[in-house]
Amino acid sequence: MVIAFDPEDCPPNCSRPCEKVCPANAILLEELSTGDQSPCNSNASSKLQGGVVTERCYGCGRCFPVCPYDKIRAKAYIRDSISTCELLKRNDVDAIEIHTTGRRIDLFEELWHSLGNSINYVKLVAVSLPDMGNLTFSTMNTVYSIMKSRLGYNLWQLDGRPMSGDIGRGATREAISFAVRLGGMKERPHGFYQLAGGTNSHTVDGLKKLGLFQVMVFSVIYFDSSSSLSHLILNLLVDSSLSSGISVKL
Ligand code: SF4
Ligand code: SF4
C-alpha cells in the first residue's frame, strides 16, 4: 500500500502536517503562486504542487490521521520482483524491508528466491512480521533459514500492531505486551530486533513502568560516506538479554 492525494485539491494555506510527519520524506510539497502577483492585485492566489514520491512511501500510515481535510487515500502498489531487482542493482538502496504475515512461508520463499543476487547489493534485510503467539519464533527461524545463505545484516521488525500508524496510547499496548513476551524467550533467532508497529511517544513510559527500558550509549558511531548505512533510527532495548542494535530505513 502507498498513499495518494491530489495536491491541487488541498487548501493552499494548509500547514502541511502530512509532510512533517512522514519519516521517509515521501511527501514533498511546495506552494506555487498563480495569477497576477502584483501588490495591487487582490486576487493573487496559489496552489500546492508536488505530492507523494511513491518509491519512498512504505505505507506506514502516519500521514492519514494528521490531514485536517481528509484528503489522503490509500492505494495498492505492487512492485514486481523484476523491478525490485533492478532497483536494488542500482546500488543506492541500503536496506530492504519485507512484510509478511508469517502464514504463507511458501510465498516468502518464492519472493526471496526471485530477488536472486540483487539482495547482495543491500546492507541489511528487515523482515516485518506480526505477533503470531507461540508460532512467532518458529516462523522467524524458518524465515531465517530461507535467507541466511545470502544475508548480510538482518533485522526483525516485530509489529505489536501492524500498520497502526504508530499513533495513540492504545497502539502501544500491543507493542509492549509483545516486548514482554520477547523478553521472556531464551532462544531467539539471529539478528537485530526492533519493536515496530505500535511504538510511539507513549512506548518509553510503558516500558519504564514494566522495568524494561534501558538506555545504551554508543561512544563512537562513525561510518564513512562510501560505506555508511545512510539513515540510523532508534532501536528500543527490550531487556538486558535481548539483542540490540541499529536499524535502517530507506
Ligand atoms: S504512509 Fe508513511 S511513508 Fe507513506 S507518505 Fe504517509 S507517512 Fe510517508
Ligand atoms: S495535510 Fe492534507 S490537506 Fe494538507 S497538504 Fe497534506 S494532504 Fe493536503
Descriptors for this entry?
single chain, alpha/beta, Alpha-Beta Plaits, two-stranded antiparallel ribbon, 7 helices, 25% helix, disordered C terminus, binds iron/sulfur cluster, metal-binding, metal ion binding, iron-sulfur, Fe-S-bd_prot_LdpA_C
Descriptive account of the structure:
Mean pLDDT is 78; it is low at 220-250. Helix 4 packs parallel to helix 5. This protein has a four-stranded parallel β-sheet, covered by helices on one side. Helix 5 (136-147) links the parallel strand 6 (124-130) and strand 7 (153-159). The chain has helices at 17-21, 63-66, 81-89, 105-115, 136-147, 169-183, 203-209; strands at residues 2-4, 27-34, 45-52, 73-75, 95-99, 124-130, 153-159, 192-195. It is of the alpha/beta class. It is built from seven helices and eight strands, in the order βαββαβαβαβαβαβα. Helix content is 25%, strand content 18%. The protein folds into two domains: 13-33 and 45-77, Alpha-Beta Plaits; 81-209, no CATH class. Bound molecules: iron/sulfur cluster (SF4) (2 copies).
Reading the helices and strands in chain order gives EHEEHEHEHEHEHEH
Distance between the termini: 16 Å
Q: How would you classify the quaternary structure?
A: single chain
Q: What best-fitting shape do the alpha-carbon axes yield?
A: globular
Strand order of the largest sheet: 5-6-7-8
| Number of H/I helices | 7
**Structure summary, number of beta strands:** 8
Structural class, by secondary structure, is alpha/beta
**What is the radius of gyration computed over CA atoms, rounded to a whole number of angstroms?**
21 Å
Q: Poorly predicted ranges (pLDDT <50, ≥5 residues)?
A: 220-250
**Small ligands present:** iron/sulfur cluster
- State the helical fraction: 25-40%
Q: Tell me the number of structural domains.
A: 2
Sheet with most strands: 4 strands, parallel
Please report which band the strand proportion falls in: under 5%, 5-15%, 15-25%, 25-35%, 35-45% or over 45%. Answer: 15-25%
Mean pLDDT: 78
Pfam family, one: LdpA_Fe-S-bd
Domain 4Fe-4S ferredoxin-type: 1-32, 48-77
InterPro entries: 4Fe4S_Fe-S-bd (IPR017896), 4Fe4S_Fe_S_CS (IPR017900), Fe-S-bd_prot_LdpA_C (IPR021039), LdpA_Fe-S-bd (IPR057431), PSI_iron-sulfur_center (IPR050157)
Keywords: 4Fe-4S, Iron, Iron-sulfur, Metal-binding
